[in-house]
From TrEMBL, chain A:
GO molecular function, one term: DNA binding
Protein name: SigE family RNA polymerase sigma factor
Boundaries of every RNA polymerase sigma factor 70 region 4 type domain copy: 100-152
Domain RNA polymerase sigma-70 region: 15-79
Keywords: DNA-binding, Sigma factor, Transcription, Transcription regulation
Automatic annotation (TrEMBL), chain B:
Transmembrane segments: 37-59, 420-438
Lineage per the UniProt record: Bacteria, Bacillati, Actinomycetota, Actinomycetes, Propionibacteriales
Keywords from the named record: Membrane, Transmembrane, Transmembrane helix
Entry protein name: Uncharacterized protein
Keyword Transmembrane helix: yes
Length: 164, 444
């Protein structure tokens, strides 16, 4: 595969799938800029391997996306603060929407718990697939998933109880 | 009530919109180029560092000693250095060849065994230092032959009863052996013993000449754990014996002289035991009274066997005296000056001795001096490594003293390989840390 073919294939993939990747990245990071940075990082890291993954690049890029959200972004974003429930109102004094409440609740999870929730309940991966993507053991996925759901249930209002 | 999947879908709708990023491909290429360049730089620096350490360590293991020409003259070095405990041994580098100086009680270190005392030989032709790997060495005494071609030593092995290890401090002695410095071969003479042989480290083994080894020992009365004082008492002793190297068995020199110290030898077939000089060829002896001789390994027997030179008195050091007889004349004279002599090593010729005395303006280091027995004028001929007395830790090939003393290169001082390995590991670890940190910091 020539350099021009790599470039064409890469740019075609970015144009087609960047939006979908940003949706996942937004759930993983909880912020617009962070989501864009995470997607850019995943795409950049995938580029040297493009000739090998050119036929089906998305699983590989999503694997980088998930793992980087845990490793690289853990140091920047996650400062775990134990709270029983989310604040009743936003900083501006307006009532938060359901989306905002869920976003804040996700941000209270550890990066790995958040990644498990996103992969299991947004990407609809099985526990085994989630373990494979994150490079962790199946038991770890189960325990993180169980703990994450418990925390989400405790942090979200009763009428927003989490149904899976 | 919606499911978590539906609510995540809804939240994902808040994600920024995707679009074209035409510069992304070029940024990605630059990013990877920077990472590769940085990685190569760190790896290159680490490799250079490792090569530097390894090269330095290698250079430290080499001396400036060049292979001796076949005709290189054998001689005693005019300066002796303290050998490094990390020097190589004859098992690694082969036999040393003719030995000018034997240095005993030297510390030897290795990766796999505990630090222990060992014997270093100094080549007579190149000045190279090397540990002698003497098989089954009991560590209880060594003797360098006058020609420097053989080293005799006590060997350890199995005893017929409980071995006496002096409370685990020593190996049981079960015989003696002779190491050939040219070939590395070893001739053994085992002695049957119940608990091991009791030998004196400094005076149980001596070469009468290049082929005849004189020795003396007694048997331990008990082994480890023996009741009472048996474990610390000597039993029956063996008479003073001589072994012509290669002969089937030693023969007795004097059946009445048992467990005796061999205090001096002239390298020409005569040894000094007590107040007698014995000729090992036929066992004949003549009396040599040496009043005031109080230190072992401090006397020198003249080539004729008629005179003994030694420091007289209980003082340490002491002035040199010469006693005996020259023809029909009785000799009992003092060497002028030289009041601080520890030991007389040998007769250099009829008018000069080789003696160990304090170095000038020093009370802790000694050197070897050529001493004129009539005028007392002394001249340093061998600078010793010091501190400590050479007479207990060094032996010279006395046949080489006629050739004078020559300059030889200093031995190598290898670095502790454990330190080298640690430095290399630390360097590699540091490079890895730098690499990881740098790769994390590199920006798109």
């Amino acid at each position: 595969m020539s350099a021009s073919e790599v470039r064409a294939g890469f740019e075609e993939f970015v144009a087609a799938r960047r939006g979908a990747l940003l949706r996942t990245a937004y759930l993983l990071t909880g912020g617009h800029e962070d989501a864009e940075d995470l997607v850019q990082l995943a795409l950049v890291k995938a580029l040297p391997h493009w000739t090998r993954i050119a036929d089906a690049p998305e699983p590989y890029v999503r694997r980088i996306l998930a793992r980087e959200s845990v490793t690289r972004w853990r140091r920047r974003r996650w400062r775990e603060v134990s709270v029983d429930r989310l604040p009743e109102s936003s900083a501006t004094g307006e009532d938060p929407t359901d989306r905002e409440l869920l976003r804040r609740a996700l941000l209270q999870l550890s990066p790995r718990q958040r990644a498990v929730v996103v992969l299991r309940y947004f990407e609809d991966l099985t526990e085994a697939q989630t373990a494979d993507v994150l490079g962790i053991r199946l038991g770890t996925v189960k325990s993180h998933g169980r703990e994450a759901l418990e925390r989400l249930r405790s942090m979200l209002p009763d009428d927003d109880a989490v149904q899976v | 009530m919606s499911t978590l999947h539906e609510r995540l879908e809804a939240l994902a709708d808040d994600a920024p919109s995707g679009g074209l990023d035409p510069a992304l491909y070029d940024r990605a290429r630059r990013y990877h180029r920077r990472r590769r360049a940085g990685t190569a730089l760190v790896v290159a620096a680490a490799v250079l560092g490792v090569l530097g350490i390894a090269g330095g360590a290698h250079l430290q293991t080499r001396a400036d000693v060049q292979p001796a020409a076949p005709s290189a003259a054998a001689a005693v070095p005019e300066r002796l250095y303290a050998p490094s405990p990390w020097l190589s041994g004859t098992d690694d580098d082969g036999p040393l060849g003719r030995i000018a100086v034997l240095m005993t009680d030297q510390e030897r270190k290795s990766w796999i065994s505990a630090d222990h005392e060992a014997v270093v030989g100094i080549s007579a032709t190149t000045g190279e230092y090397r540990f002698l790997d003497l098989p089954d060495d009991a560590g209880q005494g060594w003797a360098l032959s006058p020609d420097g071609r053989r080293v005799a030593f006590w060997i350890t092995g199995a005893t017929t009863g409980t071995a006496n290890t002096q409370a685990g401090q020593a190996l049981p002695v079960t015989g003696l052996a002779v190491y050939d410095a040219d070939t590395g071969g070893v001739l053994r003479y085992p002695v049957e013993t119940a608990h091991g042989l009791m030998v004196d480290r400094n005076s149980s083994l001596a070469w009468a000449d290049a082929d005849h080894l004189v020795f003396s020992f007694s048997q331990w009365r008990g082994g480890d754990g023996a009741s009472g004082e048996r474990a610390s008492m000597s039993g029956p002793g063996a008479p003073l014996s001589v072994w012509k190297v290669g002969a089937e068995a030693p023969r007795t020199i004097d059946p009445e002289t048992v467990s005796s110290e061999v205090e001096a030898t002239n390298g020409r077939g005569e040894v000094l035991v007590g107040d007698y000089a014995y000729a090992v060829s036929d066992g004949s002896r003549h009396r040599l009274r040496t009043p005031g001789r109080s230190m072992t390994r401090s006397s020198a027997l003249s080539p004729s066997g008629g005179l003994v030179a030694y420091p007289r008195g209980n003082g340490n050091p002491a002035p040199i005296v010469i006693v005996g007889h020259a023809g029909n004349r009785v000799v009992d004279s003092s060497v002028p000056g030289n009041d601080e002599t520890f030991s007389v090593f040998a007769w250099l010729d009829a008018g000069h001795l080789l003696a160990e005395e304090y170095a000038p303006q020093s009370r802790y280091r000694t050197d070897l001096y050529r001493v004129n027995i009539r005028t007392g004028v002394s001249q340093r001929v061998v600078r010793l490594a010091g501190p400590g007395n050479f007479r207990y830790s060094g032996q010279l090939a006395t046949d080489l003293l006629d050739a004078g003393f020559v300059a030889r290169p200093a031995p190598p001082t290898p670095w502790d390989p454990r330190t080298v390995a640690g430095a290399v590991a630390a360097l590699i670890a540091a490079a890895c840390v730098v690499l990881v940190l740098w790769r994390r910091r590199v920006r798109l």
